[in-house]
Amino acid sequence: MATEGADRVTSLLASTPTFLRRHPALLVEWLRLLNWLSRWRGEGSKTVLLVLSVLAVVIALLFAWSGHVVGAIEGLADYWVLLAVVAAIYAASSVSGRRRQLEEAKSQSWLIATPIPPRSLLVSHAIRVLLPLVVIAVIVVLFPALVAVTNEGIAAAAEKVAGAAGGALLIGGVFGWWTGGRARVSGVVPSRYVPRPSGRPANESMRPDAAALAGWPIAQVLAWSRPENSRYVLVAALLAVQGGSSAIAGLSVVAMYFVASYLAALVSAMTTVAKSAAAWLRATPITLVGFVWSVSRRALTHQIIGVVLAVGCMVMLGAPIGVALQVAALWLGLFVSIAGFALVDNYRGRSPVVKIALAVAAVAAFATILQLRAGAKT
Amino acid sequence: MTSIVLDVRQVHAKYGKREVLSGVSLQVPAGEWFCLLGPNGVGKSTLLRCISGALTPSSGDLFIAGHSATTEPLAAKQRLGYACAPEQLPGLLTGRQCLEVYAQAKGLTEIGADVLALAHELRFDGYFDSFVDTYSLGTRQKLCILLALLGEPTVIVLDEAFNGLDPASALLVKHHLQHRLTNGRCAVLLATHSLDIVEHYADKAALLIDGRIVREWSESEIAAFRVQGNSAMETALAAAST
Lengths: 378, 242
Prior knowledge:
The complex is a heterodimer. Helix content of chain A is 80%, strand content 0%. Chain A is mainly alpha-helical. In chain B, the strands form two sheets. A six-stranded mixed beta sheet of chain B has the order 6-7-8-3-9-10, with helices on both faces. In chain B, strands 2-1-4-5 form a four-stranded antiparallel beta sheet. The chains are: A mainly alpha, B alpha/beta. Chain A binds chain B through residues 189-191, 194, 196-197, 202, 205-213, 216, 219-220, 223, 276-277, 279-287, 290, 294, 349, and chain B through 52-54, 56, 73-75, 77-78, 80, 82, 84, 88-94, 96-111, 116, 128-129, 131-134.
């Protein structure tokens, strides 16, 4: 049995590309990716459903936006400087953030005590940090080119957009790599940005209370929203404000960005917390209704308040009230679906991924139908 | 005659296609400390996960204070005290919040004074208002044990719960559990590699190998090991494992 295992290890090494064998930290990620893919292959029908859901969302988006792509490229070409600035900021922030995360994770890594040369670690980090940006850059350059091939007359605009975005991503990526390497590894725990519970004196006697469950998703969002992450939302919001806008319009745009980013993060936090809370409380007799209500009640309140604020901002920016209410209803429906599936399925010990994907696809399809109907009317 | 508070009947459990438990049966009466022994990867934690409801057996059943864990899970869990793994604790909640939420989830009207007293003895009160993600392993382990003891459970299930505890804290917990057992308030099922605990605290022990119980030791046999000393239990365990 021991030799069988040893044979499998040597055959794995023999079949692995030499480059990966020379960089063990990268080899680990490669094997993780292969194992993840093979796990999904083993799931069969679930994988098919997930892929179909993703395809449905992509097709829905293409349907919704197909009429606007040419106009969007021409518009972006007019504002190519702004496009370049936004692309550079995105590249710098994402690369810097990812590099910082990897540096922080290095000290906790299971490979910390292995004699991997620092140069090999650097190469591994560089590939992991920069590869997603390279993929985005390729898409950003190829997409306008493809559109230009099928639409005469926008070749110059497409070239400008591709050049500005691609070049800015490259420059931003280099800058982000440099700043990420200079940042001190802080080792800050996630709860650093979560306010301590208040309202009751510390020496007051404890009593059974599920209030902390309700606050957990909000705490998770706050833990994610470190100052170094939040400032990028602010920059993006400020750049979205059109020149010549009134103060109210400008503030509305900035408020919208922050509200939207908070609400989106809260949806993600619900899925994370649902899984952790269900695993932690599995051995208790908490009922399904008690679990769902305890975890979701504050998040639902925040979503409703956030949506009302967003509707107000949209109306102030000139959107028709009917459209704003439609968007609000779609968003709330999406939140309830995603949070509901996450909470119920995790309570029952099942993965909610496929159902969530189907819910997103359904909302995307519904939104597309509404847009097509609105387009047909006009 | 003492009642059987934990009754495991021919439990089979799988992860995917791999069967980990192949017909495990054991009974633990009230007032008994039962230790589950076995090499790594034989299914000890899997059996405890079946008891806690984290894993549904593919066949067989488990009864906690007479309630089936498969058909009456909520009633069974009312009487169960299970110490979760330290990494399952919510990092963004404080120790106080964890106790309050867990008590609420168990449907309790108050947090027992004996649990709070044990927390004080374990010097955990200084950590009540700190976030769990700032705790060391040992501190998290203390919190897991305190959570398991909430609500006077009839069956207390611990999976290597003394790992990471300092010797003084481990001793306090053992004495606390003994006190509960002496009063007939509960039974304890502990999965452990520590033969010291088996020799000095356990009333019964069972050896799990490849998903089956291959050997059980009674109270008198364990007492005999204690008297013999000289790694007698270790030798017997090694012999039974081959």
